[in-house]
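Section 4.2 – Deliverable D4.2 (structural model, holo form)

The reporting period included a commitment to supply a predicted holo structure for the target in complex with nicotinamide-adenine-dinucleotide. Inputs used:
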Amino acid sequence: MKKIGFIGLGIMGKPMAMNLIKAGYNLTVYDIRPQPVKEVVAAGAKECKSSRDVAAQSEVVITMLPNSPDVKKAVLGANGVLEGAKTGTILIDMSSIAPLVSKEIAAEAQKKSVEMLDAPVSGGEPKAKDGTLAIMVGGKKEVFEKVEDILKVMGSSAVLVGDIGSGNTTKLANQIIVALNIAAMSEAMVLATKAGVDPEKVFQAVRGGLAGSNVLNAKMPLVLDGNFKPGFRIELHIKDLANALDTAHEIGVPVPLTGVVMEIMQALKVDAKAGDDHGGIIQFYEKSAKVGVRRPKK
Ligand code: NAD
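Output (structure tokens):
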């Protein structure tokens, strides 16, 4: 079994690393925060003091970091992955970052004979814990095939969608679909609630029809409880939509609905809600309509 290094043990990275340990992989880990490192080490991983050290001890290095600059720093920066990696190491960046940056990092990695895949995920913390993430991969087929078994420990699907950067392009499409779905759910549920119908009943009535969705099933129960603990923070979704808008404008694709939802998220940020789960988008509508979409008090 390949030796794996894991860098970035946040909401997603920690459970993903835990699943690799459970599957019997030898894991070395690093995060700038000591707490999640302690927890993963207690489960059997080995602690390293830098991304460089992780890479020096691994055949495959996985990164799960917030955004493009974080991945650049951890891979290309001082004490980064490329300083420690041996020829033939495979770097799998599972963070959601700008596709162009994936390509830049892969080009630098290639100079050191390190192969890279961009392999962002969808499914959030619950699916990271269950090992049932949807993984969208960009890179060379022969490299993908070498690590497919590792990806399948963390996800129920791992689809090679194209060359390096394609994984993150797919993720941008995914994030547009998710953001617009949450906004549509929010708009509809605020309308129904203010019109006097119990939102839980509306959820039950529509979920089996064409309006039913994974987004509705995952987010409506949390909304009804007023539970906006992340999950996936609004600030990370702002980052994804900013990458989507940049990419779309660069290649000449107007994305009007994405622009509107981006501004809704910006309003929530001003309202100090950027750290809430993205299900909290509904708070924008609730504030405008002066109504709360919650279970009626028993
Ligand atoms: P997070 O902020 O919880 O975790 C990021 C971790 O990286 C933190 O533990 C942080 O300390 C660590 N880190 C930051 N810079 C570092 C560095 N230079 N070296 C080592 N460690 C460093 O974020 P998350 O929610 O786990 O998300 C990670 C990525 O996955 C993001 O790109 C996000 O968009 C994506 N994603 C998140 C979800 C979700 O539901 N949370 C779902 C799908 C995809």
